[in-house]
What does this fold into?
Amino acid sequence: METVTLRPLYHKEKDCIGIYFNNLPLLNKSVRKVTDCRWTKTFGCWYTPLNKANYMAITAAFEGLAVTDNAELKTYLIQRQKPTPAISPAKVALPPAPVSGVKEKTTITIYKPLTVIKAGTIQAINAHVLPAMKQQLVLKAYSQSTIRTYLTEMSQLLQTLGKNNADALTPVDLRRYFVFCFEKLRLAENTLHSRINALKFYYEQVLGRDKFFWEIPRPKKHIQLPQVFNQDEVAGIINSITNLKHKTMLMLAYSAGLRVSEVVALKTYQIDSKRMSIFLERAKGKKDRLVVLSAVLLVMLREYALKYKPQKKGYLFEGAVAGQGYSTRSLEEVIQQAKQKAGVIKPGSIHALRHSFATHLLERGTDISMIQKLLGHNDLRTTLRYLHTTNKDLIKIVSPLDNLDLK
It folds into this structure.
């Protein structure tokens, strides 16, 4: 029988229960029954607020399907009731500072949490850091997603430091910490970039330090091509859906190359059938943009409006609660179910429809600068990635294998 492990998790400034198990469809389906249960990419697990009701719901959801291991959670709850600090010092060998003529290995003291992630490990000396950082992020009007990410990454440093003062760290200390993150914590390149950006914001934007982060080398990112569905696969995914709302939302995402957040945030008045355009307000990067309204989509939207009657000034696609938008997670589940039903085995989410939109336009001869405008990219280099996903020129190349006289 499978095992579900429950661990203490400090996420989004709250005590949570981290739920860890092997990626099996039956277990994934069961965990969604738990109230307020969500997936976190940061920690790679499902989580829900830490309380007795949610704990009971978790055990009930997996009853008969898996064994629930709550040892770490139980230990944490016991320790939390004790006045003793949940930090123990550990000697960690890190690379020496780049001082000319010094070759010996340097050892410094770093305070490590007893568990992987645990609430309450930020010491009083650093209690001011996250509030000050959050205030500056809010004042500079960063998105809620970026604020959550930066605070989470900064909290990892604070939990590691223990009683050491974060404000007193030097560029040399930070270099050693990033090496520790890469070699000991084995953080992926993208996660390490995110952590560097968060710390850069605190030391330069909050503390007003001189811009020294340019001296800290960044890990080379894996050059990853966008996931793209071919046109038959897109048609299969859309045709497999019988629910009118779900089908309309996926058609909208593909027809205009929208992000999942843009689909669920769309208001009814932003559809302009006279000008055959869709006005996206305050999209990613707080940029407005205009995208094309497909004639086929317009027919679907009118059919959808007759059935669901969306409010003229409200969300075009309402969720389970009246007056609130559809959830991104629910829409991601829609496409995964549609892919399975259509027999599409390629990995890819709603964002793959956006990639497919750009690639298919490019294959039809659309100018790359126009695609950049439709997608809302600041940098043309971001759009140029799609030159590597199109097979427009590739299909003209004849493999040398095809010219061999094989028997």
Summary: The CA atoms of residues 152 and 343 lie 38 Å apart. The chain has three domains: 2-80, 87-215, 231-388.
